[in-house]
Amino acid sequence: MDLIRRQVAHGLGVSDGIAIGQVFLIDRRHVPINKVHVPPELVDAEVGRLENAIGRTTVSLERLLEHTQNQNTEEPLLVLNAHLLMVRDPLLLEMATRQIQDERKCAEWALKSAVRAIRDKFDLLDDAYFRERRTDVDFVGERILAALTARDDGVQEVPTDAVVVAHNLSPEDVITLLRQNVRGLVTEAGSKTSHAAILARALEIPAVVGCRGALELCGHGDPVVVDGRQGTVLIDPPDPVIEQYRSIAKSHAAFEEQCLAEADLPAVTPDGHRVAVLANIDIEDEVGSALAYGAEGVGLYRTEFLYIDGRRLPSLDEHRRAYRYVLEAMGPDRGVTFRSFDLGSDKEAAGVRTPHEANPALGLRACRLALQHPTLFRAQLRAVLSCHEGGKVSLMFPMVSGIDELLEVKALVKSERAAMQDEGLTPADVRMGVMIEVPSAVWVADDLAQEVDFFSVGTNDLIQYSLAIDRQNEHVAYLYQPLHPANLRALKHVVDAAHRARIPVGMCGEMAADPLHSAVLLGLGFDSLSMPNVAIPKVKWALRRLSQRDATALVDECLRERSAAAIVKRVRRAMEDQLPDLFG
Q1: pTM of the model
Q2: Residues labelled as active-site residues
Protein backbone atom coordinates (compact mmCIF):
# COMPACT_ATOMS: atom_id res chain seq x y z
CA MET A 1 0.00 0.00 0.00
CA ASP A 2 2.88 2.33 0.80
CA LEU A 3 4.27 1.91 -2.74
CA ILE A 4 0.87 2.58 -4.30
CA ARG A 5 0.58 5.84 -2.32
CA ARG A 6 3.87 7.03 -3.71
CA GLN A 7 3.43 6.50 -7.43
CA VAL A 8 4.85 9.28 -9.55
CA ALA A 9 4.31 9.65 -13.30
CA HIS A 10 6.56 11.86 -15.40
CA GLY A 11 5.75 13.83 -18.52
CA LEU A 12 6.34 17.22 -20.07
CA GLY A 13 5.28 20.22 -18.01
CA VAL A 14 3.59 22.59 -20.47
CA SER A 15 1.64 24.95 -18.23
CA ASP A 16 3.09 26.20 -14.97
CA GLY A 17 1.42 25.86 -11.58
CA ILE A 18 0.28 23.27 -9.02
CA ALA A 19 -3.07 21.49 -9.28
CA ILE A 20 -4.43 19.42 -6.37
CA GLY A 21 -7.64 17.46 -6.76
CA GLN A 22 -9.23 14.15 -7.68
CA VAL A 23 -8.65 12.16 -10.84
CA PHE A 24 -11.39 12.31 -13.48
CA LEU A 25 -10.67 9.78 -16.22
CA ILE A 26 -11.56 10.25 -19.89
CA ASP A 27 -10.60 7.34 -22.16
CA ARG A 28 -12.03 6.91 -25.65
CA ARG A 29 -9.20 4.87 -27.16
CA HIS A 30 -11.03 1.58 -27.59
CA VAL A 31 -14.45 2.61 -28.90
CA PRO A 32 -15.38 -0.07 -31.49
CA ILE A 33 -17.03 0.70 -34.83
CA ASN A 34 -18.87 -1.49 -37.28
CA LYS A 35 -16.82 -2.44 -40.33
CA VAL A 36 -19.26 -3.91 -42.82
CA HIS A 37 -19.78 -3.78 -46.58
CA VAL A 38 -23.18 -2.44 -47.58
CA PRO A 39 -25.24 -3.79 -50.49
CA PRO A 40 -25.34 -1.63 -53.65
CA GLU A 41 -28.89 -0.45 -53.00
CA LEU A 42 -27.82 1.11 -49.64
CA VAL A 43 -24.79 3.03 -50.92
CA ASP A 44 -26.72 6.27 -51.41
CA ALA A 45 -28.24 5.95 -47.95
CA GLU A 46 -24.78 5.56 -46.39
CA VAL A 47 -23.57 8.68 -48.17
CA GLY A 48 -26.64 10.47 -46.81
CA ARG A 49 -25.85 9.28 -43.26
CA LEU A 50 -22.33 10.66 -43.58
CA GLU A 51 -23.51 14.02 -44.94
CA ASN A 52 -26.08 14.27 -42.14
CA ALA A 53 -23.42 13.52 -39.48
CA ILE A 54 -21.10 16.18 -40.89
CA GLY A 55 -23.98 18.67 -40.82
CA ARG A 56 -24.76 17.89 -37.16
CA THR A 57 -21.08 18.17 -36.27
CA THR A 58 -20.91 21.58 -37.94
CA VAL A 59 -23.90 22.79 -35.94
CA SER A 60 -22.46 21.53 -32.63
CA LEU A 61 -19.13 23.27 -33.26
CA GLU A 62 -20.89 26.49 -34.23
CA ARG A 63 -22.85 26.39 -30.96
CA LEU A 64 -19.69 25.79 -28.94
CA LEU A 65 -18.03 28.68 -30.78
CA GLU A 66 -20.97 30.93 -29.93
CA HIS A 67 -20.78 29.98 -26.24
CA THR A 68 -17.02 30.66 -26.19
CA GLN A 69 -17.17 34.21 -27.57
CA ASN A 70 -16.80 35.73 -24.09
CA GLN A 71 -13.48 34.03 -23.28
CA ASN A 72 -10.72 36.41 -22.17
CA THR A 73 -8.30 34.87 -24.67
CA GLU A 74 -8.57 34.25 -28.38
CA GLU A 75 -6.92 30.82 -28.57
CA PRO A 76 -10.19 28.86 -28.09
CA LEU A 77 -11.84 30.83 -30.90
CA LEU A 78 -8.90 30.20 -33.24
CA VAL A 79 -9.00 26.47 -32.54
CA LEU A 80 -12.76 26.14 -32.99
CA ASN A 81 -12.66 28.13 -36.22
CA ALA A 82 -9.88 25.85 -37.50
CA HIS A 83 -11.97 22.75 -36.72
CA LEU A 84 -14.99 24.27 -38.40
CA LEU A 85 -12.90 24.82 -41.52
CA MET A 86 -11.87 21.15 -41.47
CA VAL A 87 -15.46 19.94 -41.07
CA ARG A 88 -16.60 22.18 -43.93
CA ASP A 89 -13.68 21.23 -46.17
CA PRO A 90 -15.08 19.06 -49.00
CA LEU A 91 -11.92 16.87 -49.06
CA LEU A 92 -12.91 14.69 -46.09
CA LEU A 93 -16.46 14.15 -47.41
CA GLU A 94 -15.18 13.43 -50.92
CA MET A 95 -12.61 10.87 -49.75
CA ALA A 96 -15.09 9.06 -47.49
CA THR A 97 -17.86 9.15 -50.13
CA ARG A 98 -15.49 7.61 -52.67
CA GLN A 99 -14.81 4.70 -50.30
CA ILE A 100 -18.52 4.15 -49.76
CA GLN A 101 -19.28 4.23 -53.49
CA ASP A 102 -16.21 2.37 -54.81
CA GLU A 103 -15.60 -0.14 -52.02
CA ARG A 104 -19.10 -0.25 -50.50
CA LYS A 105 -17.77 0.42 -47.01
CA CYS A 106 -20.25 1.53 -44.38
CA ALA A 107 -20.08 5.21 -43.45
CA GLU A 108 -18.17 4.66 -40.18
CA TRP A 109 -15.52 2.52 -41.87
CA ALA A 110 -15.16 4.93 -44.80
CA LEU A 111 -14.82 7.91 -42.46
CA LYS A 112 -12.10 6.18 -40.43
CA SER A 113 -10.20 5.31 -43.62
CA ALA A 114 -10.42 8.87 -44.95
CA VAL A 115 -9.24 10.36 -41.66
CA ARG A 116 -6.30 7.95 -41.58
CA ALA A 117 -5.29 8.89 -45.15
CA ILE A 118 -5.36 12.62 -44.38
CA ARG A 119 -3.53 12.14 -41.10
CA ASP A 120 -0.79 10.16 -42.82
CA LYS A 121 -0.01 13.20 -44.97
CA PHE A 122 0.65 15.24 -41.83
CA ASP A 123 3.02 12.54 -40.55
CA LEU A 124 5.36 13.36 -43.43
CA LEU A 125 5.90 16.94 -42.24
CA ASP A 126 9.18 17.87 -40.56
CA ASP A 127 7.91 20.86 -38.61
CA ALA A 128 6.74 19.78 -35.14
CA TYR A 129 4.01 22.40 -34.82
CA PHE A 130 2.50 21.57 -38.20
CA ARG A 131 2.67 17.82 -37.69
CA GLU A 132 0.98 18.16 -34.30
CA ARG A 133 -2.03 19.41 -36.26
CA ARG A 134 -2.63 15.85 -37.49
CA THR A 135 -4.38 15.30 -34.17
CA ASP A 136 -6.90 17.95 -35.24
CA VAL A 137 -7.91 15.64 -38.09
CA ASP A 138 -8.41 12.83 -35.56
CA PHE A 139 -10.47 15.05 -33.26
CA VAL A 140 -12.72 16.23 -36.10
CA GLY A 141 -13.12 12.64 -37.33
CA GLU A 142 -14.09 11.47 -33.83
CA ARG A 143 -16.76 14.16 -33.56
CA ILE A 144 -18.27 13.14 -36.91
CA LEU A 145 -18.07 9.48 -35.89
CA ALA A 146 -19.90 10.25 -32.65
CA ALA A 147 -22.65 11.91 -34.70
CA LEU A 148 -22.80 8.89 -37.03
CA THR A 149 -23.19 6.43 -34.18
CA ALA A 150 -25.41 8.66 -32.02
CA ARG A 151 -22.69 8.37 -29.36
CA ASP A 152 -22.22 11.20 -26.87
CA ASP A 153 -18.51 11.97 -26.94
CA GLY A 154 -18.87 15.24 -25.14
CA VAL A 155 -17.31 15.79 -21.76
CA GLN A 156 -19.78 15.11 -18.99
CA GLU A 157 -20.11 17.31 -15.92
CA VAL A 158 -17.02 16.96 -13.77
CA PRO A 159 -16.46 17.72 -10.06
CA THR A 160 -15.13 21.16 -9.17
CA ASP A 161 -11.87 19.68 -7.86
CA ALA A 162 -11.28 17.49 -10.93
CA VAL A 163 -7.87 16.87 -12.45
CA VAL A 164 -8.65 15.37 -15.85
CA VAL A 165 -6.47 12.43 -16.93
CA ALA A 166 -6.86 11.29 -20.55
CA HIS A 167 -4.98 9.69 -23.39
CA ASN A 168 -5.56 12.86 -25.39
CA LEU A 169 -7.98 15.76 -25.32
CA SER A 170 -9.55 17.55 -28.23
CA PRO A 171 -9.59 21.36 -28.18
CA GLU A 172 -13.35 21.17 -27.71
CA ASP A 173 -12.79 18.94 -24.66
CA VAL A 174 -10.34 21.44 -23.18
CA ILE A 175 -12.60 24.43 -23.79
CA THR A 176 -15.58 22.63 -22.25
CA LEU A 177 -13.53 21.45 -19.27
CA LEU A 178 -12.09 24.87 -18.57
CA ARG A 179 -15.58 26.33 -18.56
CA GLN A 180 -16.23 23.89 -15.71
CA ASN A 181 -13.17 25.17 -13.82
CA VAL A 182 -11.16 21.95 -13.71
CA ARG A 183 -7.96 22.29 -11.72
CA GLY A 184 -5.47 20.54 -13.98
CA LEU A 185 -4.91 18.43 -17.10
CA VAL A 186 -2.80 15.31 -17.67
CA THR A 187 -2.56 13.55 -21.04
CA GLU A 188 -0.57 10.55 -22.22
CA ALA A 189 -0.13 12.05 -25.68
CA GLY A 190 0.74 15.58 -26.75
CA SER A 191 3.61 18.05 -26.71
CA LYS A 192 4.28 21.72 -26.01
CA THR A 193 2.65 22.55 -29.33
CA SER A 194 -0.48 20.42 -28.92
CA HIS A 195 -3.75 22.31 -28.58
CA ALA A 196 -4.28 21.03 -25.04
CA ALA A 197 -0.93 22.55 -24.06
CA ILE A 198 -1.51 25.84 -25.90
CA LEU A 199 -4.99 26.30 -24.41
CA ALA A 200 -3.87 25.30 -20.90
CA ARG A 201 -1.08 27.90 -21.02
CA ALA A 202 -3.38 30.57 -22.41
CA LEU A 203 -5.97 29.92 -19.69
CA GLU A 204 -3.34 29.32 -16.98
CA ILE A 205 -4.32 25.76 -16.02
CA PRO A 206 -1.48 23.50 -14.73
CA ALA A 207 -0.90 20.74 -17.28
CA VAL A 208 1.42 17.81 -17.99
CA VAL A 209 1.39 16.06 -21.39
CA GLY A 210 3.29 13.07 -22.78
CA CYS A 211 2.72 11.32 -19.45
CA ARG A 212 2.83 7.73 -20.67
CA GLY A 213 0.98 5.16 -18.59
CA ALA A 214 -1.05 7.74 -16.67
CA LEU A 215 -4.37 6.02 -17.39
CA GLU A 216 -3.03 2.72 -16.01
CA LEU A 217 -1.64 4.32 -12.86
CA CYS A 218 -4.65 6.52 -12.02
CA GLY A 219 -7.97 5.40 -10.62
CA HIS A 220 -11.15 7.44 -10.86
CA GLY A 221 -11.37 9.66 -7.77
CA ASP A 222 -7.75 9.16 -6.67
CA PRO A 223 -6.15 12.14 -4.93
CA VAL A 224 -3.59 13.63 -7.32
CA VAL A 225 -1.06 16.46 -7.49
CA VAL A 226 0.04 17.92 -10.84
CA ASP A 227 3.23 19.99 -11.00
CA GLY A 228 2.98 21.80 -14.33
CA ARG A 229 6.55 23.13 -14.26
CA GLN A 230 8.41 19.97 -13.25
CA GLY A 231 6.19 17.70 -15.37
CA THR A 232 5.37 15.35 -12.46
CA VAL A 233 2.08 13.76 -11.44
CA LEU A 234 1.81 12.35 -7.90
CA ILE A 235 -0.93 9.73 -7.63
CA ASP A 236 -2.55 9.11 -4.25
CA PRO A 237 0.28 10.83 -2.33
CA PRO A 238 0.42 10.83 1.50
CA ASP A 239 -1.37 13.69 3.28
CA PRO A 240 1.89 15.43 4.36
CA VAL A 241 2.96 15.58 0.70
CA ILE A 242 -0.39 17.07 -0.31
CA GLU A 243 -0.05 19.70 2.40
CA GLN A 244 3.47 20.49 1.23
CA TYR A 245 2.18 21.07 -2.29
CA ARG A 246 -0.68 23.21 -0.98
CA SER A 247 1.95 25.45 0.54
CA ILE A 248 3.88 25.50 -2.75
CA ALA A 249 0.69 26.32 -4.67
CA LYS A 250 -0.07 29.20 -2.29
CA SER A 251 3.44 30.59 -2.73
CA HIS A 252 3.19 30.14 -6.49
CA ALA A 253 -0.09 32.06 -6.62
CA ALA A 254 1.39 34.89 -4.57
CA PHE A 255 4.43 34.98 -6.85
CA GLU A 256 2.24 35.12 -9.97
CA GLU A 257 0.30 38.03 -8.46
CA GLN A 258 3.56 39.84 -7.70
CA CYS A 259 4.79 39.36 -11.28
CA LEU A 260 1.49 40.62 -12.69
CA ALA A 261 1.48 43.62 -10.34
CA GLU A 262 4.90 44.61 -11.73
CA ALA A 263 4.07 43.78 -15.36
CA ASP A 264 3.94 47.39 -16.53
CA LEU A 265 7.44 48.14 -15.26
CA PRO A 266 10.21 48.05 -17.89
CA ALA A 267 12.66 45.12 -17.90
CA VAL A 268 15.73 47.05 -16.74
CA THR A 269 18.49 45.10 -14.99
CA PRO A 270 20.04 46.37 -11.72
CA ASP A 271 23.11 47.47 -13.72
CA GLY A 272 20.99 49.52 -16.10
CA HIS A 273 20.58 47.30 -19.19
CA ARG A 274 17.13 47.31 -20.78
CA VAL A 275 15.53 44.44 -22.71
CA ALA A 276 12.26 45.05 -24.60
CA VAL A 277 9.68 42.37 -23.75
CA LEU A 278 7.11 41.99 -26.51
CA ALA A 279 4.08 39.86 -27.39
CA ASN A 280 3.48 37.20 -30.01
CA ILE A 281 -0.06 37.48 -31.40
CA ASP A 282 -2.08 35.65 -34.05
CA ILE A 283 -5.05 37.98 -34.47
CA GLU A 284 -5.71 41.63 -33.70
CA ASP A 285 -8.11 40.92 -30.82
CA GLU A 286 -5.21 39.65 -28.69
CA VAL A 287 -3.76 43.15 -28.33
CA GLY A 288 -5.84 43.96 -25.24
CA SER A 289 -4.53 40.90 -23.44
CA ALA A 290 -0.96 41.70 -24.50
CA LEU A 291 -1.20 45.18 -22.98
CA ALA A 292 -2.76 43.84 -19.79
CA TYR A 293 0.21 41.51 -19.34
CA GLY A 294 2.73 44.31 -19.83
CA ALA A 295 3.79 43.94 -23.47
CA GLU A 296 5.98 46.79 -24.70
CA GLY A 297 5.01 46.12 -28.30
CA VAL A 298 4.32 43.24 -30.67
CA GLY A 299 7.43 41.32 -31.69
CA LEU A 300 5.59 38.80 -33.87
CA TYR A 301 2.24 39.24 -35.58
CA ARG A 302 1.53 36.03 -37.49
CA THR A 303 -0.37 37.53 -40.42
CA GLU A 304 -1.16 34.18 -42.07
CA PHE A 305 -4.23 33.78 -39.84
CA LEU A 306 -5.89 36.45 -41.98
CA TYR A 307 -5.57 33.99 -44.88
CA ILE A 308 -6.50 30.68 -43.29
CA ASP A 309 -9.46 31.90 -41.21
CA GLY A 310 -11.84 32.16 -44.15
CA ARG A 311 -12.93 30.81 -47.53
CA ARG A 312 -11.38 33.60 -49.61
CA LEU A 313 -8.25 35.69 -49.66
CA PRO A 314 -8.38 38.82 -47.48
CA SER A 315 -8.93 42.06 -49.36
CA LEU A 316 -6.52 44.98 -49.18
CA ASP A 317 -8.98 46.80 -46.92
CA GLU A 318 -9.19 43.80 -44.58
CA HIS A 319 -5.39 43.72 -44.34
CA ARG A 320 -5.25 47.44 -43.62
CA ARG A 321 -8.06 47.30 -41.06
CA ALA A 322 -6.40 44.48 -39.08
CA TYR A 323 -2.94 46.05 -39.17
CA ARG A 324 -4.14 49.53 -38.30
CA TYR A 325 -6.20 48.20 -35.39
CA VAL A 326 -3.09 46.65 -33.83
CA LEU A 327 -0.96 49.74 -34.43
CA GLU A 328 -3.54 52.14 -33.03
CA ALA A 329 -4.16 49.92 -29.98
CA MET A 330 -0.44 49.74 -29.28
CA GLY A 331 -0.07 53.51 -29.60
CA PRO A 332 2.81 55.63 -30.87
CA ASP A 333 5.36 54.40 -28.32
CA ARG A 334 5.04 50.66 -28.96
CA GLY A 335 6.23 49.08 -32.18
CA VAL A 336 4.54 46.25 -34.10
CA THR A 337 6.44 43.69 -36.18
CA PHE A 338 4.37 42.05 -38.89
CA ARG A 339 5.69 38.73 -40.20
CA SER A 340 4.90 38.30 -43.87
CA PHE A 341 2.58 35.36 -44.42
CA ASP A 342 4.05 31.96 -43.51
CA LEU A 343 1.72 29.94 -45.71
CA GLY A 344 2.48 26.54 -47.20
CA SER A 345 3.03 23.19 -45.50
CA ASP A 346 -0.27 22.58 -43.65
CA LYS A 347 -1.28 26.25 -43.57
CA GLU A 348 -3.28 26.63 -46.73
CA ALA A 349 -5.15 29.70 -47.90
CA ALA A 350 -8.24 29.80 -50.07
CA GLY A 351 -7.25 30.56 -53.64
CA VAL A 352 -3.55 29.75 -53.19
CA ARG A 353 -2.54 26.61 -55.01
CA THR A 354 0.46 24.73 -53.65
CA PRO A 355 1.98 21.62 -55.20
CA HIS A 356 1.83 18.19 -53.61
CA GLU A 357 5.13 17.70 -51.80
CA ALA A 358 6.61 14.71 -50.02
CA ASN A 359 8.10 17.01 -47.39
CA PRO A 360 6.18 20.31 -47.47
CA ALA A 361 7.67 21.68 -44.22
CA LEU A 362 10.93 22.00 -46.13
CA GLY A 363 9.27 22.87 -49.40
CA LEU A 364 7.38 25.76 -50.98
CA ARG A 365 6.37 27.83 -47.96
CA ALA A 366 6.79 31.25 -46.36
CA CYS A 367 9.02 33.58 -48.45
CA ARG A 368 9.55 30.89 -51.08
CA LEU A 369 5.80 30.76 -51.65
CA ALA A 370 5.58 34.58 -51.60
CA LEU A 371 8.17 34.85 -54.38
CA GLN A 372 6.21 32.33 -56.46
CA HIS A 373 3.02 34.37 -55.95
CA PRO A 374 4.22 38.00 -56.27
CA THR A 375 0.72 39.39 -56.81
CA LEU A 376 -0.44 37.87 -53.53
CA PHE A 377 2.70 39.09 -51.78
CA ARG A 378 2.39 42.62 -53.21
CA ALA A 379 -1.11 42.94 -51.73
CA GLN A 380 0.25 42.29 -48.26
CA LEU A 381 3.23 44.57 -48.81
CA ARG A 382 0.95 47.41 -49.92
CA ALA A 383 -1.22 46.95 -46.82
CA VAL A 384 1.81 47.22 -44.52
CA LEU A 385 3.24 50.14 -46.49
CA SER A 386 -0.12 51.92 -46.09
CA CYS A 387 0.11 51.89 -42.29
CA HIS A 388 0.95 55.40 -41.08
CA GLU A 389 -1.14 55.20 -37.90
CA GLY A 390 0.12 54.26 -34.47
CA GLY A 391 3.69 53.43 -33.59
CA LYS A 392 6.70 52.07 -35.43
CA VAL A 393 5.97 49.58 -38.20
CA SER A 394 8.30 46.65 -38.91
CA LEU A 395 8.04 43.85 -41.44
CA MET A 396 10.03 40.63 -41.22
CA PHE A 397 10.37 37.72 -43.59
CA PRO A 398 10.32 34.06 -42.46
CA MET A 399 12.33 31.05 -43.72
CA VAL A 400 14.99 33.16 -45.46
CA SER A 401 17.88 30.79 -46.17
CA GLY A 402 20.37 33.19 -47.75
CA ILE A 403 21.16 36.52 -49.35
CA ASP A 404 19.63 35.77 -52.77
CA GLU A 405 16.15 35.17 -51.33
CA LEU A 406 16.40 38.29 -49.21
CA LEU A 407 17.41 40.47 -52.16
CA GLU A 408 14.49 39.16 -54.21
CA VAL A 409 12.08 39.98 -51.39
CA LYS A 410 13.57 43.46 -50.97
CA ALA A 411 13.24 44.08 -54.70
CA LEU A 412 9.50 43.37 -54.50
CA VAL A 413 9.17 45.76 -51.55
CA LYS A 414 11.04 48.45 -53.48
CA SER A 415 8.89 47.87 -56.56
CA GLU A 416 5.64 48.10 -54.60
CA ARG A 417 6.85 51.25 -52.86
CA ALA A 418 7.59 52.82 -56.28
CA ALA A 419 4.17 51.78 -57.61
CA MET A 420 2.45 53.49 -54.68
CA GLN A 421 4.45 56.68 -55.27
CA ASP A 422 3.50 56.62 -58.96
CA GLU A 423 -0.15 56.53 -57.84
CA GLY A 424 0.37 59.58 -55.66
CA LEU A 425 0.44 57.60 -52.42
CA THR A 426 3.03 57.98 -49.67
CA PRO A 427 4.41 54.66 -48.41
CA ALA A 428 5.00 54.38 -44.67
CA ASP A 429 8.52 54.23 -43.29
CA VAL A 430 8.78 50.49 -42.58
CA ARG A 431 11.76 48.77 -40.99
CA MET A 432 12.62 45.42 -42.62
CA GLY A 433 14.09 42.35 -40.96
CA VAL A 434 14.53 38.61 -41.32
CA MET A 435 13.73 35.68 -39.09
CA ILE A 436 16.78 33.57 -38.38
CA GLU A 437 15.29 30.07 -38.22
CA VAL A 438 17.24 28.19 -40.89
CA PRO A 439 20.81 27.03 -40.04
CA SER A 440 22.16 28.48 -43.31
CA ALA A 441 20.89 31.93 -42.23
CA VAL A 442 22.93 31.64 -39.03
CA TRP A 443 26.17 31.20 -40.92
CA VAL A 444 25.54 34.02 -43.41
CA ALA A 445 24.20 36.34 -40.72
CA ASP A 446 26.97 38.87 -41.39
CA ASP A 447 25.81 39.19 -45.00
CA LEU A 448 22.11 39.33 -44.11
CA ALA A 449 22.77 42.00 -41.48
CA GLN A 450 24.04 44.38 -44.17
CA GLU A 451 20.65 44.29 -45.89
CA VAL A 452 18.13 44.59 -43.05
CA ASP A 453 17.22 46.77 -40.07
CA PHE A 454 16.90 43.94 -37.51
CA PHE A 455 17.03 40.19 -36.83
CA SER A 456 14.48 38.04 -35.00
CA VAL A 457 15.48 34.49 -34.09
CA GLY A 458 12.81 31.79 -34.34
CA THR A 459 14.20 29.10 -32.07
CA ASN A 460 11.37 26.57 -32.52
CA ASP A 461 12.47 25.73 -36.05
CA LEU A 462 16.13 26.64 -35.66
CA ILE A 463 16.72 24.12 -32.86
CA GLN A 464 14.96 21.32 -34.71
CA TYR A 465 16.69 21.96 -38.01
CA SER A 466 20.09 22.41 -36.34
CA LEU A 467 19.90 19.28 -34.19
CA ALA A 468 18.08 17.18 -36.82
CA ILE A 469 15.49 16.00 -34.33
CA ASP A 470 11.74 15.95 -34.05
CA ARG A 471 10.59 16.96 -30.59
CA GLN A 472 7.28 15.18 -31.19
CA ASN A 473 9.05 11.85 -31.73
CA GLU A 474 9.09 10.14 -28.35
CA HIS A 475 12.28 8.29 -29.26
CA VAL A 476 14.35 11.46 -29.77
CA ALA A 477 12.36 14.15 -27.93
CA TYR A 478 14.97 14.23 -25.18
CA LEU A 479 17.43 15.66 -27.74
CA TYR A 480 15.36 18.83 -28.20
CA GLN A 481 17.51 21.04 -25.99
CA PRO A 482 17.44 24.86 -26.19
CA LEU A 483 20.65 24.95 -24.12
CA HIS A 484 22.54 22.57 -26.41
CA PRO A 485 26.07 23.91 -27.04
CA ALA A 486 25.40 24.06 -30.79
CA ASN A 487 22.31 26.21 -30.26
CA LEU A 488 24.06 28.58 -27.84
CA ARG A 489 26.99 29.00 -30.22
CA ALA A 490 24.61 29.64 -33.12
CA LEU A 491 22.73 32.27 -31.10
CA LYS A 492 26.00 33.91 -30.08
CA HIS A 493 27.08 34.05 -33.74
CA VAL A 494 23.79 35.69 -34.78
CA VAL A 495 23.81 38.26 -31.96
CA ASP A 496 27.42 39.21 -32.66
CA ALA A 497 26.73 39.55 -36.40
CA ALA A 498 23.75 41.83 -35.73
CA HIS A 499 25.65 44.03 -33.31
CA ARG A 500 28.66 44.30 -35.62
CA ALA A 501 26.26 45.71 -38.20
CA ARG A 502 24.71 47.96 -35.51
CA ILE A 503 21.23 46.45 -35.84
CA PRO A 504 19.08 45.07 -32.98
CA VAL A 505 18.41 41.37 -32.58
CA GLY A 506 15.40 39.79 -30.88
CA MET A 507 13.99 36.34 -30.24
CA CYS A 508 10.40 35.30 -30.89
CA GLY A 509 10.72 31.55 -30.34
CA GLU A 510 9.48 29.47 -27.41
CA MET A 511 12.89 29.67 -25.74
CA ALA A 512 12.24 33.35 -24.93
CA ALA A 513 9.13 32.53 -22.89
CA ASP A 514 10.90 30.38 -20.29
CA PRO A 515 12.30 32.55 -17.46
CA LEU A 516 14.89 29.82 -16.81
CA HIS A 517 16.55 31.02 -20.03
CA SER A 518 16.35 34.73 -19.18
CA ALA A 519 19.92 35.01 -17.84
CA VAL A 520 21.31 33.19 -20.89
CA LEU A 521 19.47 35.40 -23.37
CA LEU A 522 20.44 38.50 -21.41
CA GLY A 523 24.07 37.39 -21.37
CA LEU A 524 24.04 36.59 -25.08
CA GLY A 525 23.01 40.19 -25.73
CA PHE A 526 19.47 39.95 -27.12
CA ASP A 527 17.85 43.37 -27.37
CA SER A 528 14.26 42.10 -27.26
CA LEU A 529 12.32 38.97 -26.37
CA SER A 530 8.86 38.22 -27.78
CA MET A 531 6.53 35.60 -26.31
CA PRO A 532 2.92 34.56 -25.59
CA ASN A 533 1.10 37.11 -23.45
CA VAL A 534 0.91 35.05 -20.26
CA ALA A 535 4.70 34.58 -20.13
CA ILE A 536 5.49 38.33 -20.16
CA PRO A 537 5.11 39.23 -16.45
CA LYS A 538 7.39 36.45 -15.19
CA VAL A 539 10.14 37.08 -17.76
CA LYS A 540 10.10 40.82 -17.01
CA TRP A 541 10.25 40.05 -13.28
CA ALA A 542 13.31 37.84 -13.82
CA LEU A 543 15.13 40.33 -16.04
CA ARG A 544 14.68 43.14 -13.51
CA ARG A 545 16.56 41.07 -10.95
CA LEU A 546 19.42 39.79 -13.10
CA SER A 547 22.70 41.59 -13.59
CA GLN A 548 23.84 41.78 -17.20
CA ARG A 549 27.43 41.48 -16.07
CA ASP A 550 26.69 38.25 -14.17
CA ALA A 551 24.61 36.97 -17.09
CA THR A 552 27.46 37.62 -19.54
CA ALA A 553 29.87 35.73 -17.25
CA LEU A 554 27.38 32.84 -17.06
CA VAL A 555 27.15 32.65 -20.86
CA ASP A 556 30.94 32.68 -21.17
CA GLU A 557 31.06 29.68 -18.83
CA CYS A 558 28.27 27.90 -20.74
CA LEU A 559 29.99 28.40 -24.09
CA ARG A 560 33.02 26.55 -22.74
CA GLU A 561 30.92 23.52 -21.80
CA ARG A 562 30.73 20.55 -24.15
CA SER A 563 27.39 19.01 -23.16
CA ALA A 564 23.83 20.25 -22.87
CA ALA A 565 23.43 18.52 -19.49
CA ALA A 566 26.37 20.45 -18.06
CA ILE A 567 24.94 23.76 -19.36
CA VAL A 568 21.47 23.05 -17.97
CA LYS A 569 22.97 22.20 -14.57
CA ARG A 570 25.08 25.36 -14.55
CA VAL A 571 22.20 27.62 -15.62
CA ARG A 572 19.71 26.12 -13.19
CA ARG A 573 22.14 26.42 -10.30
CA ALA A 574 22.80 30.08 -11.15
CA MET A 575 19.11 30.89 -11.48
CA GLU A 576 18.20 29.11 -8.24
CA ASP A 577 20.90 31.12 -6.44
CA GLN A 578 19.85 34.46 -7.90
CA LEU A 579 16.06 33.98 -8.22
CA PRO A 580 14.90 31.38 -5.67
CA ASP A 581 11.29 32.66 -5.90
CA LEU A 582 11.18 31.50 -9.50
CA PHE A 583 11.50 27.91 -8.34
CA GLY A 584 9.12 28.07 -5.40
Answers
A1: 0.71
A2: 195, 508
